[in-house]
Amino acid sequence: MSLNSESSQKWQTICQLDDLVSNAGVCALLEQTNSTLNDSEQVAIFHLPNTEQQVYAIGNYDPIGQANVLYRGIVGNIGDDIVVASPLYKQHFSLRTGQCLQEDAKVKNYPVRIVDQQVQLLV
Amino acid sequence: MDSQVVRKTKVVVIGNGMVGHHFVEQLVELSKKEQVIEITVLSAESRLAYDRVHLSEYFAGKSAADLAMTDEETYQNWQINFAVDAKVSHIDKDEKFVETEQGQRYDYDKLVLATGSYPFVPPIPGKDQEHCLVYRTIDDLEAINASAKVSKVGVVIGGGLLGLEAANALKQLGLKTHVVEFAPQLMGVQVDAGGGRLLKDKINQLGVEVHTSKATSEIIAGEQSRYKLCFSDGSELETDLILFSAGIRPYDNLARSFDLAVGERGGIVIDNQCQTSTKNIYAIGECALWNNFIFGLVAPGYAMAKVAAEHILGQSAEFTGADMSTKLKLMGVEVGSIGDAHAKAAGSLCYTYENQPNGVYKKIVINADKTQLLGAVLIGDTSEYDTLLQYMLNGIELPESPEALILPMAADKPALGVDALPDSATICSCHNVTKGDIVSAIDNGACTVGDVKSCTKASSGCGGCTALVKNVTDSILEQRGVEVKKDICEHFAYSRRELFDIVKVEKITTFEQLLSSHGQGLGCEVCKPLTASILASVWNDYILEKSHVGLQDTNDTFLANMQKDGTYSVVPRIAAGEITPDKLIVLGEVAKKYNLYTKITGGQRVDLFGARVEQLPLIWQELVEAGFETGHAYGKSLRTVKSCVGSSWCRYGVQDSISMAILLENRYKGLRAPHKIKFAVSGCTRECAEAQSKDIGIIATDKGWNLYVCGNGGMKPRHGDLFATDLDDETLVKYIDRVLMFYVNTGDRLQRTSVWMDNLAGGLSYLQSVVIEDSLQISTELEKQMQSIVGTYQCEWKTTLADPEALKRFKPFVNSDKADSNIVFVEERQQIRPAYPHERIPVQVSDNEPKTSLEKSSAQSAKIVEPA
After folding, report:
1. Looking at the predicted structure, is the pLDDT value of residue A121 above 60?
2. Which of B143, B232, B406, B410 is the most buried (most CB within 10 A)?
3. pLDDT band (50, 70, 90) for residue B868
4. Could you tell me which residues are beta bridge partners of residue A115?
5. Which residue of A has its CA nearest to B847?
6. ipTM here
C-alpha cells in the first residue's frame, strides 16, 4: 500500500458492501474535493470473498487499451498475483499494486477498508 | 598454398538451389569436428538458396525472405566463401579450377555440380514473345506477377505436377486460367488414366479449364486477347499470358563443354557415389543422371547431397535410388502417388475404388502373390497415404483383403498404428528421418514435436509427413510415460473435453463446485469463460445467473460486443437475413434515437455501434418490444445462418433456401460451443450464400440438400468438406444436430470446427462414421442433448430486462448516475465514430468538468459529437 502524503488523505465512503458483485468488479466515481486537472476519477472495485483482503480498488482506466474498462475484466490469480484481465487486450493488472504483469504499465491502486458494511477508500 | 601443416580440402559447389544448399549443410555438419574442409559456393542466381517446393506460396503472400533457406550471415558463421551472380563459364580439370563469367578463378580439390535444371520450352513458333513465361525461380514469379497485372486470361502449357501448381498461381492472381496438356491426361507421371480423368473433372469444377490431347502448333496475335494458341487439331484458344511448364531439362552444359559423360537425352552421368566420369567432380540433384534416370524431386536430391558429402569426407556411402512417392494438394484437390502407380511390374494386380459423386479415386497395386504393396494412386482423399506408403517402403505384409486399405468405412479397416512400424521405417523421406531417428532424438531429450522437428529436420522438407511425425512423436512420448500436456491453464490440469465430461458426469452446475473439486487457485480469464460455456452447453442456464456473472467475458456479461473505446455494439437476430420493412424501420429509429453508428454485417444483419453500458437495457427494451431477439453476436455460439433467396424468388433456385435457413437459425440459436458457429444455405449450386466457407454449409440440389461441414473464412480459410449429399429436410437436421453436438462435446477451447476437423483422428471419414453410421453408438445421446438445448432456449435480453438484479450491472457507476466522460465521438460520413487521440482536445477546466472537451472544435475537421 502506498501511503504517501497521509495528512492530505482521508477515508471516503464509496458504497455499501452489498453493492459489490462477488468475484467481479464494479466502477465508482471519485468526486474530487480539491480541484486538480483530473476530473472525477474512476475506480474499479473488486470483491473476491475467497481471498484474505476481500476488496481491492485500482484505477479503472486501461492505459494500454486507453478506455475506462478494467472493472469489466475477469478476476483471478496468476501464480501468487491476484489480478484482473483487461477485457480489451487481456493484459493482467495486479489488484494489490496496479502493476501490469505483461507490459511496462501501471494503474493507481487505492487502500480499501470495510467499516460497518461500508466500502471506504483512502483518497 | 599456405604453410599450414594440414592443407584443407577445397570444395567448390556450383549452384545454390535446395540440393546445393543441402550439400553444404551436410558437409558442414559432418566435418564439424575436424575443420578440414574449405567450402566455396557459387550461385548464378542473385539470391542464396530458397525453397522452390513451396514457390507457389509466394503468390499467397510469402516473401522471398520467407522462402529463403539460408542467408549470408549463416554462411559467414559457417565460414563458407560464397558469391551470388557468379555464373561459372569454365572448368579446368587438369589445373583443377573453375572460372566465372566475370573472370574470377576458384581452385578446387573436389568440385560439386548442383546446377539443377531449367524449364523445357517446346519449340513452338511464337514462344519467345513478351508474356510467354516459365515458372521456376523467384525472378520468374516476379515476371508472372507483373504480366498478370495487365492480363485477364492465362494459359499453362503442360499439365504435370508443376503445371498444375503454376495454374493455381495464375488463378490466385485473378486470371481466367486454362491448362493445355499434350497427353490425354493430367499428371501422367504420377497418376494413372482413371485418376487423371477424375483429377481433370475436379480441376474443371474449380474453374480452371483443362484441355487434354492438345498439341500447340503456333502462337499468333489474338483477337480478344493478346495471343491466340493454334492447336494441331484446328481448334484455338485466346490468352494474354502463356506459362510453359512442359517438364525440366538438366543444366548439363558445363559437363558437355568440359567433357564429362552425359546421357543420351541429357543429364550428367553419375555412379552410386555421385561421382561423374571425372572422379573428383560430383553431380547431385536434377542435373545428375543416375541409372539413366533423372529425379525431379527434392528428396532424392537431398539423398545424393548426403552421399556426395560423406564420400568427400572419406566415408562410405551409396546412392541406391529413391522413392518417388508424393502427396500434395493441388488447388485444394488432394493427390497422392506411391511407387508403381502405373502397375508396370510384371504380374501386378490392382484394386480400384471410385466415388464419382464425392470426387474420390483410389487404386492400389499389389504383387502377384498378394503379399506386398507396390504402388497406389489417391485422388480427392489422401488420408490413407501415410499408411500405404509405410506398407510399400517397409515391405509390410498385406492383410488378407488388401482392398480394405482403401475402401471407405470398411468394417475391419486394418489400422497400421505407428507402433507397428519398424525402427527402420522412413518417416520423412526428404530428410531421410526414420522412426529410429525420432526415438533417439527423444532419448536425447526432445520432448515436443517442435523439438523433434528441429533436431531431426523431419517434416521441414515438403511437409507431407507433418501429421505422421506428430503421431510417431506423441506415441513414443506416451510409451515413455511423458504426459502430453493439454491443461487449459494453471488452475485446471484438464483439457476442455475432459472438463466437459466432468461437468456432465458429476452434474456440476457452478464454477465454484468445479474449482473446489478439480482445480486450484481463483481461476482466470481462460478457465472461467470456458467453464461458463461448458455449463451453458450442458445445462443451458441463463448466463447471467448470479453464480455465473463473474465467469463471463465482458461481451457475455453485457450481452453486447465491446469496441475499442469501451462502448458496445448491438446486433439483434435477423434470422436468415429476412426482415420486414417495419422491423427495419424500428432498427433505424432506435439507432437514430440513441445516435448509433449503423452498419450491415457480413452475416446479413444490422450492427448498431457506440452504445454506452447504461444505454444497453434502454435500447433492448425498445427492440424486444418490437419483437427482436438477441443475436448472440457476443457469444461463442451460433451467429447467423446466411442465405440466398433460393427458389422463392431466384430463377435458378432449386430449393427454398430462406425457409431452411430460418428453420436452422431458430433451431440452433443460443447454442453455446467451443467457439462461434456460422451457417449458410444456398438455393442452388451457384452458391451465392458462400456456404462452403461456413462451419455448416448447405447447398440445394434438385433432390434435396448437400451438407458441407467445418469450413471457415477468416484468418485461415478452409473449404467445408462435403459430408453427405441429397438429404431430405429431416435427415439434414438430424446430421447437423449430431455434428454440432459432437463438436460441442469434443472440441478444444476456442477451436473452430475447421481446426477441430483437421485435428480429428480419422478426419472426415471418421466424423461420417460417427454421425451417419453411428459407429460410437452415441447419436441418440447427441440428439437428446441438442433437443434439450433447443427446448430450453430463452432470449437472454428478454430475461435480463425482467430481472432488476441483473439490470444493476448496467449502471456505469455504483455511486453516481453520470456517464463516462472519456467516451468521445466525432462525425464521419454523417455518422459517429470513436475519436482518435489527436482529435480529442485536452483543455484545462474547472471542477467537475471533463478533462476532454466535448465542445465542437473549429480547429479540427472532425466534429465532436454530443452524447445522446
Report:
1. yes
2. B406
3. low
4. A118
5. A35
6. 0.88
